[in-house]
Structure formats: C-alpha cells, structure tokens
C-alpha cells in the first residue's frame, strides 16, 4: 500500500470524514505488518510528525512485537487501515492515504500534533454525538488580534484537550484559516472532529481513560508559540536587557497566543471561563438563546423528535416538518440562511447521516419526506435534555399566547334565526316599527291576533283584510287557511336574519340573510388535493390558531388566505390546507369546538 508523505498540516478540509468512528464499522481483514512495511511506516510517521524522535518511532512501530493492520469498512462505505500494537490502535490511514494518530498514541506523545486547542469539558458530549467544535467554545487568550491565528490554515490537523489537561481527547481539522477566524468575530464552526475518546475506534483498544496533567503555562499551543518560546529562552540566556525582553514578549502575544504566569493562572482561568462559558454549547446550563442558528435548529429538532414524533402521520413532508419546527416556539425565527446548512434538506440529511434520527426518501419526484424516526435507543436523543433557554422561551411564549386569547376558551355561539317585520305583517304582529322576531315569537303574535279578532273556524283561520295582505290577493276575505299555511306565509313575507350570542361579548352579532354553515371543500389544485375551509370568520374563530391545530395535528401545511380576491369571491377569509383533511377538520370542529352538525357542510 502506498502511503502519502504529505503532512496533516496541508490536508484540505473534507466534510465527508466527520467523526468516521461515531458509528460501528466492519472488519474486513486482519494481518501482521511485514518488517519492510514497518520501515516505510516509520519514515512516513517521522515526516508527517517531525517531533517524534527515533526512540519514539521504534516504540510506536516495533520491529519484533505484535503490530497488525486491520482493514475496516466504515458506515459510509469507505475503507481505512488501522495499525495496532498489542491490540491497541495507534494510528489510522484513510482512503486518501493521510495518517492520523489515535487518542491512545496522543496520550503517549501529547505534543506530536503541533496545533492544539482547549475547550470546556461540558462540550465533550456534544462532540461525541457528532457536533462540530464551535469557535465560541474554545478556551483562548484574553486578547485576540489579527495575528493570533495567522499561522492556522484551513484543513490543518489539530488536537483537542478539555479544560487545562495536557492530554488530548480527540483530533480534528480546521474549517477556516486564521484570518477568517478573526474576521468572523470568533463565531461559527471551528473544528471538524475526526476521532474522539469513547468512539468506536477507542472501544477497540483497552478503553483506558485519558491521563491528566495540568497545563501550567498555556491554554493555546501552536507551532508559532513553540518558535517564540525558543526565541524568548535564547534571549534570556544571552542576558538581554529588560526592555528587549519585554518587546519580545509583546511580539509573542500579538503573533501567537497568551503566555500565562503561574501566579496569574488561577485568576485568568476564572475570567476566561466566566467570559467564554456563556458561549459554550451547553444546553443544560445556558439560559440564553444560542447565537449559533445550527444549535437552535438542532435543539428544536431534538425536542420535537423526543416529544411529538410518535404522533406524526408518516411520511411527513420536509416542508411540513419545518413548519412544525417554526410553530414549536411561537415567535422564534428559524433563519436557515444564517446557519451553515443554508437549506433545510441539508440539515435533515445531517441528522440522518450523523445522528441517525430520521430516514429521508423522495416519496415523489423532487418531493423529500421523512419516512421514519429512529428515537428508540438513539444515543443523541438519549443524551439530549431540553435546555433551560428553550423551556423558558416556551413558557414565556405560552404566557404571551394566553394574554392574546380571550379570558374564556372558545365557546360556539348560540345561534338564533330571526325574521324582520315589514309593512305587510306589522298590523298582524301589532307593531308599527320594524323589529326582529324569533319564529316562535311570530307564531305567538299571529295566534294572539287571530284569537282577539275571533277568526278561528273549525280549527282553521278565517281571512280578514289584514291576513289577505299576506297572500297578495290570492285569498279573499272569509276564506279559510290552516295555521301552518298562515304562519309559513307570514315568515316567508318577512326578511330573514340571524343572531350570534357569544358568552364573552356584551352584545350579540346580527347579520342579514340565512346563516352560512362552515363549509369544507376538497379541490384539485395543480394536480394536488387541497382542502378549503370557509365561513369560520362568521363564528368568530381564530383562524391562525385553527391553522396551527391543523399543522400540528395533521402534519400538513395550513395557511390563512386573507387576500382581496378571496374576500371578494368567498365573502371572507379562508383556510387552505394541504391534502384531503376533511375528516380531521370535521373531527376538530365537533370535538374541540363543539360545533353542531347542522352548521357543518361538506362538499
């Protein structure tokens, strides 16, 4: 096998190799490494990591001890070679023939990788679950200048340590150059994790814990730092005056990192942790909404998967799921353009490939849907806890929603059909003004008129001049009519209207004409089914709330159409829901809103 002699410092950033050992792998072959190949490996290892001396190389790749090569197939289908000594994996070579040390080797030679970063221990679980190390999570010098990271190159290999421990817990690659780090304001993704303590590669070894040794002088180590340290030591040995030494120290700080005094170490650590931990990706202790949109998306996604995924009707459209995420916390703007994913489909692909939470398929050409959720025994979801900031935000949003809503919950109104009097019936109803009556009131007043004028003949009514007005001369005086005919003709002569009485309104709402029913209509729109709901405004429904119920309950898109065209065509606002949601909507109206059947019309 040909092994590249290019050092990790020139490796370009490749997203596809993120945490290659987070998922289990398959072993394809297991062989002893020949002596000739061992010699080539020592040469390559020395070239890539020049800090290793000859004794270290002979210890890592012994001549006579057990030293094996294992060919592994990763979960993404890539083949890699892992080299182990006495069944302890020491380094591996990927498909592009780059050589990387394992944490076991770094625990023997913690400074073999020249670029080293420290982060807080709270971040470790996030990294193990597949998260990238964000720049705000790094422990850095108190003062950052344009020269601090000038030596850092995009794609450069680095080691990662926790807090003040010298020994690394993982390796990763830089996602940007040092200049870009400074210009970004130290925000965004900083390091892509390749291999980390407790992943599946670590589990193939002795499963030992990381050793601990306190980092006394520095929280950030780079190649430039070591160069400046050597330069400073030479200056001291030559007894250069204090002024020159001070200038050298200032130059060191501005170009590489902060050198920390042992006496000042404790105070600086406290200050650094106080300042930096506000930006650490620690969702359990952080009460502030993260600045990173990636973290916000991941948090809400995990929250929905934990709490609501079992209620979803699958498959669910990606666009619908994004709407559900937006509705999860009312008022929280999920701006995908400000995230590193840019598109929601890219975010979901990440959750599928890295966290193995969902499965995506194209249910139709160009239509991406979630077909299943893997929430049982999922490590990422098992470790997820709803952060304090999200709990607080949900609570605050719920309180705001309650304030917006009326004191009492929605109650379907009492609906009264009314009839308005006119000149044809005023005398019959014994009134000189235009008034409205219920049907039973009209019948009672007509009966009272007939009895007062002694017009009852054999259970029928004898017509007089007043009654004849109702029949438009079709009946003559002394003709007999039935009670039903008289009452029906009187009501037909009057103009119909209706009255809605709400418990939370002081005055009833009265409108002319027959009361319209809530109409549910399923139509074909662009070769797709669409459900239209009309006349909800008549009954004082909160259309936005009703849309939210549809989105969360039926897992489909639902919007309010309040366009001028809709108001002109349908005499009011509409709700447009994706697909045929007739059964779901009728169930909502009857069970949750207590709408009687006679006020629901399905077409």
From TrEMBL:
Transmembrane segments: none
GO molecular function, one term: translation initiation factor activity
Keyword terms: Cytoplasm
Record flagged with keyword Transcription regulation: no
Pfam families hit by this protein: Pre-PUA, PUA_elF2D, SUI1, WHD_eIF2D
GO aspect biological process, one term: formation of translation preinitiation complex
SUPFAM superfamilies with a match to the protein in the record: eIF1-like (SSF55159), PUA domain-like (SSF88697), SWIB/MDM2 domain (SSF47592)
Keyword Cytoplasm: yes
Domain SUI1: 527-593
InterPro entries in UniProt: EIF2D, eIF2D_N, Pre-PUA, PUA-like_sf, PUA_eIF2d-like, SUI1, SUI1_dom_sf, SWIB_MDM2_dom_sf
UniProt xrefs under PANTHER family: EUKARYOTIC TRANSLATION INITIATION FACTOR 2D
Protein's name in the database: SUI1 domain-containing protein
Organism annotation: Didymodactylos carnosus
């Amino acid at each position: 096998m040909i092994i590249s002699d290019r050092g990790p410092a020139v490796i370009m950033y490749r997203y596809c190799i993120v945490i290659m050992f987070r998922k289990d792998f398959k072993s394809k072959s297991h062989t002893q490494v020949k002596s000739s190949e061992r010699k080539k490996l020592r040469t390559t290892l020395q070239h890539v990591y020049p800090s290793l001396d000859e004794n270290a190389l002979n210890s890592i790749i012994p001549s006579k001890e057990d030293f094996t090569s294992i060919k592994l197939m990763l979960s993404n289908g890539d083949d890699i070679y892992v080299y182990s000594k006495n069944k302890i994996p020491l380094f591996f070579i990927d498909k592009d023939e780059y050589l990387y040390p394992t944490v076991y080797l770094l625990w023997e030679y913690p400074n073999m990788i020249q670029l080293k970063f420290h982060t807080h221990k709270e971040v470790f679980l996030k990294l193990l679950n597949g998260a990238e190390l964000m720049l705000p999570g790094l422990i850095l010098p108190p003062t950052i200048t344009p020269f601090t990271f000038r030596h850092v190159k995009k794609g450069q290999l680095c080691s990662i340590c926790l807090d003040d421990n010298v020994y690394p817990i993982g390796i990763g690659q830089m996602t940007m150059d040092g200049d870009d780090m400074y210009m970004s304001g130290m925000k965004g993704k900083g390091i892509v994790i390749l291999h980390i303590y407790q992943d599946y590669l670590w589990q193939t070894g002795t499963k030992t814990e990381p050793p601990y040794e306190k980092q006394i002088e520095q929280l950030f180590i780079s190649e430039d730092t070591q160069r400046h340290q050597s330069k400073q030591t030479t200056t001291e040995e030559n007894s250069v005056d204090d002024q020159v030494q001070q200038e050298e120290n200032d130059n060191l700080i501005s170009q590489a990192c902060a050198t920390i005094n042992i006496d000042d170490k404790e105070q600086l650590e406290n200050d650094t942790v106080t300042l930096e931990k506000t930006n650490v990706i620690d969702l359990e202790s952080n009460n502030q909404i993260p600045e990173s949109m990636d973290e916000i998306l991941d948090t809400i996604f995990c929250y929905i998967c934990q709490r609501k995924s079992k209620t979803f009707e699958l498959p669910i459209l990606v666009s619908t799921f994004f709407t559900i995420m937006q509705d999860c916390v009312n008022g929280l703007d999920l701006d995908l353009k400000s995230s590193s994913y840019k598109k929601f489909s890219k975010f979901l692909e990440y959750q599928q490939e890295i966290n193995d939470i969902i499965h995506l398929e194209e249910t139709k050409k160009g239509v991406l849907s979630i077909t299943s959720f893997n929430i049982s025994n999922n490590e990422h979801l098992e470790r997820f806890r709803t952060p304090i900031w999200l709990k607080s935000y949900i609570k605050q949003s719920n309180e705001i929603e309650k304030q917006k809503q009326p004191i009492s919950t929605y109650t379907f109104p009492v609906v009264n059909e009314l009839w308005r009097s006119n000149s044809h019936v005023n005398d019959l109803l014994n009134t000189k003004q235009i008034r409205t009556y219920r049907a039973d009131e009209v019948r009672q007043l007509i009966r009272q008129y007939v009895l007062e004028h002694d017009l009852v003949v054999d259970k029928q009514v004898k017509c007089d001049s007043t009654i004849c007005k109702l029949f438009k001369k079709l009946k003559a005086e002394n003709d007999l009519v039935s009670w039903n005919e008289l009452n029906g003709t009187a009501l037909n002569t009057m103009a119909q209207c209706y009255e809605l009485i709400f418990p939370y309104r002081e005055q009833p709402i009265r409108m002319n004409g027959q009361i319209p029913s809530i109409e549910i209509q399923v139509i074909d729109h662009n070769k797709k089914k669409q459900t239209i709901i009309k006349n909800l405004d008549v009954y004082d429904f909160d259309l936005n709330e009703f849309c939210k119920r549809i989105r969360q309950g039926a897992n489909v898109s639902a919007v309010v159409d309040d366009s001028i065209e809709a108001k002109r065509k349908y005499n009011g606002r509409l709700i447009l829901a994706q697909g045929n949601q007739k059964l779901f909507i009728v169930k909502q109206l009857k069970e949750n809103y207590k709408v009687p059947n006679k006020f629901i019309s399905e077409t």
